[in-house]
Write a structure and sequence with these properties.
By secondary structure, this protein is α/β, with parallel strands linked by helices. It folds into 2 domains: 164 residues, NAD(P)-binding Rossmann-like Domain (Rossmann fold); 157 residues, Dihydrodipicolinate Reductase, domain 2. The chain is built from 13 helices and 12 strands. Strands 3-2-1-4-5-6 form a 6-stranded mixed sheet, sandwiched between helices. Strand 4, helix 5 and strand 5 form a beta-alpha-beta unit. It is globular, with a radius of gyration of 21 Å. The C terminus is likely disordered.
Length: 346
Amino acid sequence: METDDRTVRLTIVGFGHVGGGVAEVVMRKHHAIKERYGLDLRIVGIADIKGVVTNERGLSESEITKFRLGDESVMAEGISTRDMIKELDHELMVEATPTNVIDGEPGLTHIITALESDRHVVTSNKGPLALQYRRLMELAGRRGKMLRFEATVGGAMPLISLIRNNLAGNGIISIKGILNGTCNYILTRMAEENLPYEHVLREAQEIGIAESDPTKDVEGIDTAVKLVILANTVFDMDATYRDVKVRGITDITPDALKLAHDAGYTIKLIGEVDTTGRLEVAPRLVPIRDPLDVSGTLNVATIKTDLAGDITVIGKGAGPIEAASAILSDIIGIYDTGQSQTKHLQ
């Protein structure tokens, strides 16, 4: 199929909350992106555990809706996810399957397959990058393709792009912050209402902030994985999740939070990485009204630099539209070589 050099055909692998959010924002912003950046983004394939749907001219909103609802009438027969990645004509794959920090699968295979098939890759999946960062970046380099992953750290909070672009020329000394909104919500509620951990965890699960199995969040695993991605991206450490010293929030009590408050502090789950090779996630005392003292589900990170001093970024770290925002920014960043990155879509 012939296409002009500003048409970008993309596939989405993994169609849960994040993948669905990507499809939503691509359709919602299609006209504005074309007007501002000259990019005609077309979703030509989607794959998840339900199956695969493809349309080389671009999937319609109706086809996408039917696929989301599991309507078999739109499913492609005899085509696997790997077949779609390898054989369907497209320039870019969005990988949005769930994070697996044990072996990185199936996302690791999806990313390798896409890069080896000469596709750019944008991902929200932390597992492959936390386990095989250098291998994946070297493969992308050999194939002359881009691998971008802003959504893996801080959701909509533009942390990686801020360091790469706006702080170019600065030496980054350290990064520390709150990188998990679930833990921050739990600690905030415990401190404000003097409630025990178990009570607030159940509350967070009931309103959808915490997963039914909250282990990755509350034991610090999610924060550790994000920290590894920062360590490798910013400090070129070639670290893996196993290199991080991790302690979660399950032992924090209302009494500990009250004692901290009486002394002018709060307790937050902080991830820290610096030029000495420190990689640590643990509950820390944070002065009240410090830039890292944010409440609810917010994420925050302070970047210490040699020229610009301390830069603090605060934003929503989770949510399908927030993650889709970061993914969309990465897609535009791959192709927008001549236009200002400061433009914003209405």
